[in-house]
Design brief:
It contains 3 helices and 2 strands, in the order H-H-E-E-H. By secondary structure, the chain is mostly helical.
């Protein structure tokens, strides 16, 4: 871009220059804060990503154990799924949502907890009670890990979007807003300097005109004084000649 497109369209004045300096200071402060925010979010993003990888690796082993324990329990106690469904009135594992504040960004956090009143401890009382309890514990662990993984995945997506938006703002301030304000300040400074030079040249010309007029006045005054001096001398000579008395004869 060239011309007025690469700067803010303002009238060059001292007040505009002060305002642009304040805007530049605010833009640099905002850039610094957004940069720190982006760094903090990136640090948390990497920690969440590392934990997601660990949980997904662990999830395979936990689900394998849970599936194997379910097959073992069905082998020892038969198909006990219908008995469990008949005896369950409400969920034994519940999920509550909370929020975690990271550099001004609200991240959803899911937390699982057990409801003691909803536990069904009589399942498998006839046979296979131990393997059923083992199966229950393994699936309980799998559900807790799933809830934790869901919380981490949601935080991962939220952080990814916020980091992209913050980086766009940082780049816009760094490469668009700050250079534009700096170009505007340079334009204002150049215009003010040009005005000062024009004012200095104008004052110099005014002083030269005044000095020239003063010299002309002084020359005219001197010429008038000289003319007055010659006229005075001629009158004095005439007076001197006219004062001679004629000779009186008796």
């Amino acid at each position: 871009m060239s011309g007025a497109g690469d700067r803010i369209n303002v009238f060059p004045s001292r007040m505009a220059q002060t305002q642009m300096k304040l805007r530049l200071k605010g833009a640099k402060k905002g850039h610094s804060l957004l940069k720190k925010k982006a760094d903090a979010l990136t640090l948390r993003f990497r920690a969440v990503l590392k934990q997601i990888v660990q949980n997904k690796t662990l999830m395979g082993e936990v689900m394998r154990q849970a599936a194997f324990s379910l097959a073992t329990a069905q082998f020892h106690a038969g198909n006990f799924g219908s008995v469990v469904l008949q005896n369950v009135n409400k969920a034994s594992i519940r999920v509550r949502a909370q929020r975690d504040n990271v550099a001004g960004v609200q991240l959803p956090v899911f937390e699982s907890y057990s409801d003691a009143g909803a536990s069904n401890d009589l399942t498998g009382l006839a046979r296979g009670g131990q393997v059923i309890q083992t199966c229950k514990a393994n699936w309980h662990k799998a559900v807790e890990l799933l809830v934790e993984l869901a919380s981490l995945q949601t935080s991962f997506v939220t952080l990814d979007e916020v980091i992209k938006m913050t980086n766009r703002r940082v780049n816009a301030i760094e490469h668009v807003i700050i250079p534009r304000i700096e170009r505007t300040l340079s334009y204002i400074a150049s215009e003010l300097d040009e005005r000062e030079r024009e004012e200095f040249y104008r004052l110099k010309k005014v002083q030269e005109k005044k000095a020239q007029a003063r010299e002309e006045e002084e020359a005219a005054a001197a010429a008038a004084l000289a003319a007055l001096g010659e006229d005075g001398q001629a009158e004095a000579a005439n007076l001197a000649a006219g004062d001679e008395d004629e000779d009186i004869l008796f």
